[in-house]
Every structure is written in C-alpha cells, then in structure tokens.
Amino acid sequence: MTFHVTEAFRSVTLGMRSFEAARDKALRLVGPVDRSETVPLDLALGRVLAETVVAPRDLPAFDQAAMDGYAVRLADVATAPLRIDGVTRAGDAPARLAPNCAHRIMTGASLPAGADAVIPYEQATIVGEGVAIADTPRSGGNVRRAGEDIARGQTVLPKGRVLAWPDIAALAALGIGAVRVVAPVRIAVLTTGAELRDAGETLPMAAIYDSNGPMLAALLTGRSVEVTKATVGDDYGALVERLAAAGSHCDLVITSAGMSSGDRDLVRGALAAAGGAIAVSAVSMKPGKPLALGTIGRAAFVGLPGNPQAAAFSALAFIRPMIAALSGRPPSAPIMARYMFADGRRTEKTELIPVRLEAESEQLVARRVGQPGSHRLMPLLAANAVAIVPAADTPLEDGDRLEVLPFHDPEFQGAPPCPAR
C-alpha cells in the first residue's frame, strides 16, 4: 500500500499553546487505565493499588508483652513474693495466670489471661521460688493491646497509592499475601529518521546512533510501566502501520523527531493516515516547540522533538504526569527550588534549563549546568533536574523560586497518604 503526505496537512496550523495550557491538555487526554491484576507481595513494590486495602484483622492480633519480664495481676502485686508459675515465649499458646502468681514472659508473647501488666526483670527481685515487685505498675504497663496499631476494618492503604517498602511490611504483618494493582501502562516509543542506527551496528557515513529511543525507554520505564521501542526510519508506510498498531493496544504512543515541517518530517501526515488526530501542534517553550499532543486509536499521542534535551525535558514535563494519571495516581505537588543564577535573557517562551539540585541550608537550590544547545548530551550528565523558567519580561534574579522536575521520579510525590492513628 502506498501512502502520501498532503501539503494541505503539512500546512495546517492549530495554533501554538502556552506551556501551561499544553500541560493541562496533556492530562486531559488521559485517564486511569481500566485494567488491573493481582500480584504476590514479593512483586508488589512500586506498583499502584487498584483498590483500597482494609485490615482483615487486628494488629497486634492479641494482647502481648512489650518487653521481657513478668506478667502479673495488679491486685496481687502487694502480695510478696509472687510465685513464678510458668514461662510464655513468643509463639506459645496463650496461658492463664493463677492467683498470687507471676509468669515469666518474653517480648511479643501472648499475655496470659488474667494478667494486666508486665514488670521488666530489672524492676523485680527474685526471692526463693518467687519474685517481689518493688513498685506498683500501672494497668496495661508494657502491654501491647490487640488492635492498638491497626484495627480490624480500618483503611490501611488507599487506592492509587504507590506501594513502598513500609506498605509491604504492613501488608505482610496483616497476612495479606497478594494485592490488586493497576496493570502496567503500555507505552510505545517510535523513533524516526533514516539516519538512525542502533548502538553496536556499523555506522555508515552521515548516520548517527539512536540515543532518544533508549533514553526515553529508560526515562519512562518503571514497575508500573511497560515500554516497547522501535526505529522506523523515514518509511512513511511503515510509520503509518506502526502508529495504527500501537494505537490499538497501547495507552500512550510516543514518537521522536519528524514533527517539524521539512520534507522528511512525516509523523503528522502518518498520524492522520493512521486515524489519529492532533490537538496541540506546537508549544511556546524552548527547547521543544515542535511538541504535539493528540490521540491515535485508543491511545494518547505525544510527538516529541528530535534533539535529546528537547525530547528528555518534554518527557519529564508532559509524559511523566500523563503516566501518573494513567496509573490512577493524583497530580503531584510542584517541587520548588531557589534558582542560584541570575539570567536576564527572559523570553516570551517558557524555558527548560538543565540544573543541578542540591540541599543547602534546609532548602533546595538549583544551579544551571552545561553549555546552551538542545542537541548536547553532556549537560544531561551534569544535571539531575530541569528547571522551568516561565515566560516573562522581567529578568530572572538569583534566588528566585522555580518549579523543578527531578530526573529520577520521586514516587512519593502524589502518593495518597495513609490515615494516621
């Protein structure tokens, strides 16, 4: 089958969106995926809960000793000495405390029926076959009551929470061996350009190695994300077929390069031929102006610029929040930092600048790194975040607060908090 790009389509201009409007539009193109799966606890770290977890039992499940010592009945403490009537270790079946007796007990062991306090060894004195208690303890002293940590029926973890290691501990302690989580978000990354070769291949004259494909796959892949990538080159028919196929089974389809208006920039035409539509054709930002947003089949579509910095920064600003929304996670609060670099070159476009984030004097500060140029990779190696400099007429002053996007996704951002007790 032969496909043709129409000049009419190439010349369509949907209007440039502001950076803020484009970010809002990107989030409105996606919603939580409707797939879920049950995974064992060992595979649940980093996954997103598809349902609220309610405690099936109390934690602790029974009254237990908070330390090694003697389990006693307060009414008997005045009797001196108390006969030592037995020993209860962690895991032993519950015992019963006889009148005027004490029971040796270990931390975590079930409190004998009839006992209402535990006396530490150092506060007791052995007298023959008994034990004398110097001071009268308080009721419940050194006892962990059933359900004092988590009560049966209590909400433990909310839907949409990204499971971290403390969550795994709580689930295991409650005897929950498997959880229902959001199925991984499916993403297709298609890099375009006849000049591209995969790393390790022989490089012909004027060809370059594809760095955007591996970069984007590494940047976006996570425990709740599955990324497939392919290099399409400048084969228009193959690009149409790839876009249509990806749109039929993925949640998000991403292309790299081919979004401008040159003769070899084929993505916009191929997207239309595959049944897709563009909602945003350009964004007022630098780098990344040719960014496009739209839909293809059942998936959202993001067309990224080809320069590495433009592709990476656009992925951080637009695609990561889209993945969070697809996973059912609420929006993250912006991370703000003080920008430690005066810059009078403010423009009408939002600028995305590579920075190094560091904590200084109990605040987050950002310092610009690297030489200008969205084609450069070295600034990405020196940076650990991108700063968003809003469009404005006024210069950027040393110490101004700016939103920053860390390279490494802080997954605690946007995770619903658990109810405290």
TrEMBL record:
This is Molybdopterin molybdenumtransferase. One of its GO terms (biological process) is Mo-molybdopterin cofactor biosynthetic process. Keywords: Magnesium, Metal-binding, Molybdenum, Molybdenum cofactor biosynthesis, Transferase. SUPFAM superfamilies: MoeA C-terminal domain-like, MoeA N-terminal region -like, Molybdenum cofactor biosynthesis proteins. It catalyses: adenylyl-molybdopterin + molybdate = Mo-molybdopterin + AMP + H(+). The lineage of its organism: Bacteria, Pseudomonadati, Pseudomonadota, Alphaproteobacteria, Hyphomicrobiales. The keyword Metal-binding applies. Belongs to the MoeA family. InterPro entries: MoaB/Mog-like_dom_sf (IPR036425), MoaB/Mog_dom (IPR001453), MoCF_biosynth_CS (IPR008284), MoeA-like (IPR038987), MoeA_C_domain_IV (IPR005111), MoeA_C_domain_IV_sf (IPR036688), MoeA_linker/N (IPR005110), MoeA_linker/N_sf (IPR036135). The keyword Magnesium applies. PANTHER family: GEPHYRIN, MOLYBDOPTERIN BIOSYNTHESIS PROTEIN. Pathway: Cofactor biosynthesis; molybdopterin biosynthesis. One of its GO terms (cellular component) is cytosol. Its cofactor is Mg(2+). Residues 188-325 form the MoaB/Mog domain. It comes from the Bacteria. Catalyzes the insertion of molybdate into adenylated molybdopterin with the concomitant release of AMP. GO terms for molecular function: metal ion binding; molybdopterin molybdotransferase activity. Its EC number is 2.10.1.1. It comes from Pleomorphomonas carboxyditropha.
